[in-house]
Amino acid sequence: MRLSYFPALVLLLLLPLFLTACDGDQEAPSIARPVMVVQPMQAAVRMSAYAGEVRARQESPLAFRVGGKVSKRLVDSGDQVKAGQPLAELETHDFLLQQDAREAQLAAASASFKQVRTERERYLRLLQQKLISPSQFETADNQYKSAEARFKQAQADLELSRNQLEYAVLRAPVAGVITAQQVEVGQVVSPGQPLFRLAADGEREVLFALPEQRIKDVRIGQPAMVELWSQPGMPFGGRIRELSATADPLSRTYAVRVALDAIAPAPPLGQSVQVWLEVNEGQVPSLSVPLSAVSADAGSPYVWVLDRKQSRVKRRAVNIGSYDEREVTILEGLQADEWVVTNGVQMLIDGQPVRALDRSGRELSTPPLGVRQ
């Protein structure tokens, strides 16, 4: 019979312990936990580096304005060309035949026009002498106007034919370098088909690919530093001139063009470069804390801030910027004179008493009343 009372006695003895444990989940423990604290530091300027390539500011494809069979290719990729220099030619036999036909048409139209003009002048004199009726003169005048229109059309056709003969020679519009050629002798090309790519002499710029996660760090007009891989330690300045509105569908990167400052001599086309951009450029100076001081709850970052008067910690949400393996930039939510916990943050709860230690292991003293902390 005595054994039957034993389980009930055990439960009665353990009940206060269970109640104490439950109360501990709602209130901060009274035991001060030792923690290491630091004050935020002014965040250093952070730079991001990207690989790029030197390009010409003006680079355009070149094509014939008329179609035909290529008879000559006069330049190759990498050739330096002058403005107006021939690059390729088409066979001109058909263009010459067309020009001969248009010249013959013009000669016939000119002869007919002269004859009708003479006839109109005669009819005009007869009308003035009242030897013919006005309707007869009107007929001669209409024939004159028709002949004049045919003559002008023949002149325009001949001019067009001469232009097409001239278009059979593809010339460089400006001085520069041929960066690509896509034509061979004997190839039949159509009007507007790109055959060469010409990089104009003059201004140079840098093209690089920007990952989509960094798009927020870049803006038009932002300063940049550029360094040629062939000339390390000799950077020169530039500014972002163009930022693509859409990402490349394959690489998921944005094309960015940096206009280079005036430098002499101009960097060679195709040179590999490294582009340096300041992260969070133009923003208010921010603070940084050790990476271990920042925790996250459901994707929302927070830190534990020390209340030195009460020797307790309080959880505070912060807005973070860039980070690396050691530090995190704090954009909002923290003051420079506050102290944050760096070690043991996973074991803390809001309002918990702590014993704050600095980096050297010395305990922080409680500030006097009236001092803002």
Distance between the termini: 66 Å
The biggest sheet, with number of strands, parallel, antiparallel or mixed sense and barrel status, is: 6 strands, antiparallel, barrel
CATH-scheme architecture of the largest domain: Beta Barrel
What is the typical, i.e. mean, pLDDT?
85
Instruction: Give the beta-strand count.
Output: 24
**Tell me, what's the shape?**
elongated
- Mind telling me the CATH class of the largest domain? Mainly Beta
Q: List low-confidence stretches.
A: 1-26, 368-373
Strand content: 25-35%
The run of helices and strands is HEEEEEEEHHEEEEEEEEEEEEEEEEE
Chart the SSEs and their pairings.
Elements: H1 6-26, E1 33-38, E2 41-42, E3 47-56, E4 59-62, E5 68-73, E6 80-81, E7 86-90, H2 93-128, H3 134-167, E8 169-171, E9 176-181, E10 188-189, E11 196-200, E12 204-211, E13 223-228, E14 236-243, E15 253-260, E16 272-278, E17 287-290, E18 295-297, E19 300-307, E20 312-317, E21 319-323, E22 327-332, E23 340-341, E24 354-357
Parallel strand pairs: 1-24
Antiparallel strand pairs: 1-23, 2-17, 3-12, 3-16, 4-11, 5-7, 5-10, 6-9, 7-8, 9-11, 12-15, 13-14, 13-16, 14-15, 17-22, 18-19, 19-20, 21-22
Helix pairs in contact: 2-3
